[in-house]
Amino acid sequence: MTSATAKPASAHLYWARNKSEDKVLTGEHKALTPEEAAALAAKSAGGVGAAWNKASTWEEKNIAAWAIGVMRDELLPPLAYELGGQERPLPASPLEAAVASCKARVSAVDSVKGEATYVLSRGKEKVLFELGLKLKLEMELLDESGALHEILTGTMHVAEVSNDELGDARMPSAKFTCDQTAWKPFFEECAKASWPSLKASLERLVEQAKQKWRN
């Protein structure tokens, strides 16, 4: 016979002392209001990173193939710059050639190799890369009147450039060849002056990677 003073099964739990809590323990659930459901969905959808990593503690993605393709096909081919004047002076030209300015551009991308990784750590994004670049350059040398004086062609091989170098004022170690032998020192100095433009391309790679891989 059941006693009239029998206590519910939850009575021995110090945190379950009222009828509403007894209902929770016995399986009686209250449905969420539309407002509560919407708030819960918004909280689940928010944040940066994969669905399995909502806490954004650590996430790492190998994006090397994507980064190499973007550099090779999109960011390096249009690279161009001009030297001449007080802000970007020309190096000394050989044979006392009357060169007033140099218009340089990437004529071909021979190769882009290396590694790239997208990292999300505690909500902060990083793009880490180590890339080797081999580019063909073409330089148009103009005289004071703007007439074409000479066209130089050659290559620039940067064995390794990483995100650590993005704050540097000078280009990382590189090797150069020039098809016009007498102009090689001039060509090399002009090629080194491509660093601000090359660095800007790498910075764009980082920003594009964050936009693409953060979700």
TrEMBL record:
Domain Activator of Hsp90 ATPase AHSA1-like N-terminal: 60-208
InterPro entries in the record: Aha1, AHSA1-like_N
Alphabetical GO biological process terms: protein folding
A Pfam family of this chain: Aha1_N
A cellular component term, taken from the record's GO annotations: cytosol
GO MF annotations, alphabetized: ATPase activator activity; protein-folding chaperone binding
Name of the featured protein: Activator of Hsp90 ATPase AHSA1-like N-terminal domain-containing protein
Source organism: Prymnesium parvum (Toxic golden alga)
